[in-house]
Design brief:
The complex is a heterodimer. Chain A has 12 helices and 12 strands. Chain A is of the alpha/beta class. Chain A has 2 domains: 155 residues, Thiamin diphosphate (ThDP)-binding fold, Pyr/PP domains (Rossmann fold); 129 residues, Rossmann fold (3-Layer(aba) Sandwich). The longest helix of chain B has 21 residues. Classes of the chains: A alpha/beta, B alpha/beta. Chains A and B meet through helix 3 and helix 5 of A and helix 5 and helix 6 of B.
């Protein structure tokens, strides 16, 4: 190995089929010796990597703070640390390490949070990362990426790793939700449908529920504008302003508390641009959701397609538009 | 490393005296953590002069050894050492606390020779473990020294990293504990006792040495022997005295931080060079 670490070249990356997070990360790491994969004893998404990466796969045990600090040390020496833990413990237990060692130093630490938001299902409130976006937004230079399915995640992964900045990735492993999606561009949202009545803005696991809600709303005679925000930070102001100016109602839908997540971002950006819009924020409450399997967790939280559609129809019925 | 000669010891003592003088001057005009800085002055002077392979003319030399100051509030000792060794001009120390420079109460990377920022305790042993890991991946013989305060050992993250570094056999990682027996305004053994401290590090899988942190011959003996270790990280417990070199503040809980008047500063400089004990009237910083 040379003293200077070689970045990846496009020719060096050969995605295999079917691509998974593990296979794409493996290929990127094999082509780029700067990449070091770390985990705080959570190998769910990267179980097969040790034989491929050898000493560039580091399991620190249940030690999130140490993992982040070690990642900072590795990044100081030119490495690209990709750090894995459950989202709740990664972003909360290790928050100050992320802010102080990665963020203040503007190091390219890549944070991958497992089972974020509603995806922790029946684990209970200890495991519910529903404040993670609020926290990561406060970290200097942090990019926040919340893919809705595996294809979005894999499409974005090379650019996220190539970025010189820290990244928080809300991990998801789910079959593609739409037949086609535009290539990932940092900071750009994906508009699935353009409509006139109501704009649903969402990210991550909630995109599937919003697709269900859109079917119900269209059946009720509404024209739906559906935006998969994807990158929460930096934010796509252009698509927000487009949605605000072309529809009667903006609705944010997220498996995150109402403070500091998409609802807050939208409100802040609208104020910053002096734009006016009616806004309904659909979100989880502090304290968490009912621990149960995903369909019931969504239903009891009002975050399944039916619950979202009901809230939208209520809002349009109760309030006359301007 | 051959045994240090008496004239080399005398040189290091002279150097440490000049560094202490810088720290005392930085304690005027707004103050600094003087007591905490003086306990590890000899340590830092020794490490930079006799142990670390660093180059003042090339502070970013990729082949250099790394020193991390995890108890960041002792940074005046580091600023003074960096100035004496030529990493930064001595005159720059006059900018201490100026908004136009970056010489404040905790270290940051804008100062040549400072490897990473610190101040929040319990971070840099982990950062050091990451640097040590990178060196191992490269096959480089980089040594990473992390100076920890003994009060800092209250932080759980130190012990978390101690477990991880031992598990991964990071034998190029060296933790040096500035064992001055104080944390902020309390004696460690009266607040959260640390003893038996060598047993604790040994039980976590580290090789442990103790050293007189103010005796350059002893420091040379202990750090000179560390190179022989394989497969285990090293901890060096340096027995030190808070405020060392200034009898008027030595071992005084409230003189962790000192904000000196110009008269007090001059009296302490005089005391440093063998003059009478200074009478300090400035307000001490007490956090408990």
């Amino acid at each position: 190995m040379t003293a200077t670490l070689r970045p990846a070249t496009a020719a060096g990356v050969r995605p295999s089929a079917p691509a998974t997070y593990e296979s794409v990360l493996r290929d990127l790491a094999l082509a780029d010796e700067r990449i070091v994969v770390l985990t705080a004893e959570n190998r769910a998404a990267i179980r097969g990597l040790p034989p491929h990466l050898g000493s560039r796969f580091i399991d620190v045990g249940i030690a999130e703070q140490t993992m982040i600090a070690m990642g900072a040390g590795l990044a100081l020496r030119g490495r690209l640390p990709v750090m894995h833990a459950l989202a709740a413990f990664l972003t909360m237990r290790a928050y100050e390490f992320i802010r102080t060692d990665i963020g203040l130093a503007r190091l390219p630490g890549k944070l991958v949070g497992g089972v974020p938001g509603i995806l922790s299902e029946a684990n209970g409130p200890t495991h519910q990362a529903i404040e993670d976006i609020a926290l990561m937004r406060t970290v200097p230079h942090m990019t926040i990426f919340c893919p809705a399915d595996t294809r979005e995640l894999l499409d974005a992964l090379p650019a996220l790793l190539a970025s010189p900045d820290p990244v928080y990735l809300r991990y998801i492993d789910r079959a593609p939700l739409t037949p086609h999606a535009p290539r990932f561009t940092p900071g750009r949202a994906h508009v699935l449908t353009r409509g006139r009545d109501v704009a649903l803005l969402t990210y991550g696991a909630m995109l599937r529920e919003c697709l269900d809600a859109a079917v119900l709303l269209e059946a009720a005679g509404l024209s739906v504008h559906l935006v998969d925000v994807r990158t929460l930070q930096p934010f796509d102001d252009d698509e927000l302003l487009e949605a605000a100016s072309t529809t009667r109602l903006l609705v944010t839908v997220e498996d995150h508390i109402g403070t500091g997540g998409l609802a807050t971002i939208v409100a802040e950006r609208l104020v910053a641009h002096r734009a006016r819009a009616r806004l309904v924020a659909i979100h989880l409450e502090p304290g968490g959701f009912v621990p149960t399997l995903l369909p019931e967790a969504l239903r009891t939280s009002g975050l399944n397609g039916e619950g979202i559609a009901r809230r939208v129809l209520d809002a349009l019925t109760r309030h006359r538009p301007d | 490393m051959t045994a240090i000669a008496p004239d080399q010891v005398a040189e290091l003592e002279e150097l440490a005296l000049r560094v202490r003088g810088h720290a005392v001057r930085m304690a005027a005009g707004g103050g600094c953590f003087l007591g905490a800085s003086l306990s590890c002055t000899d340590l830092i002077v020794h490490l930079y002069s006799r142990f670390l392979r660093v180059r003042p003319d090339a502070p970013q030399d990729p082949a250099r050894d790394i020193l991390l100051l995890s108890k960041g509030h002792d940074v005046p000792a580091l600023y003074g050492t960096l100035a004496e060794l030529g990493f930064i001009p001595r005159e720059r120390l006059a900018n201490h606390l100026s908004p136009d420079d970056s010489l404040y109460w905790h270290p940051n990377r804008r100062i040549p020779g400072v490897e990473f920022h610190s101040g929040s305790l319990g971070h840099l042993l982990g950062v050091g473990a990451g640097i040590a890991l990178d060196a191992r991946l490269r096959g480089a013989d980089t040594r990473v020294v992390v100076i920890l305060g003994d009060g800092e050992l209250n932080e759980g993250s130190v012990w978390e990293t101690a477990l991880v570094a031992a598990a991964h056999g990071l034998d190029n990682l060296i933790a040096v504990v500035d064992r001055n027996e104080f944390q902020a305004n309390a004696r460690t053994e009266e607040l959260i006792p640390l003893e038996p401290l060598t047993h604790k590090w040994a039980a976590f899988g580290w090789d442990v040495e103790t050293v007189d942190g103010h005796d350059f011959a002893d420091l040379d003996r202990v750090f000179g022997a560390l190179a022989a270790r394989a497969g285990r990280p090293s901890a060096v417990i340096a027995r030190t005295v808070r405020g060392k070199g200034l009898p008027s503040i030595e071992g005084r809980a409230e003189r962790w931080f000192c904000s000196l008047s110009p008269e007090e500063m001059h009296a302490l400089i005089d005391e440093l060079h063998g003059g009478a004990r200074a009478a300090l009237r400035s307000e001490p910083m007490v956090v408990r």
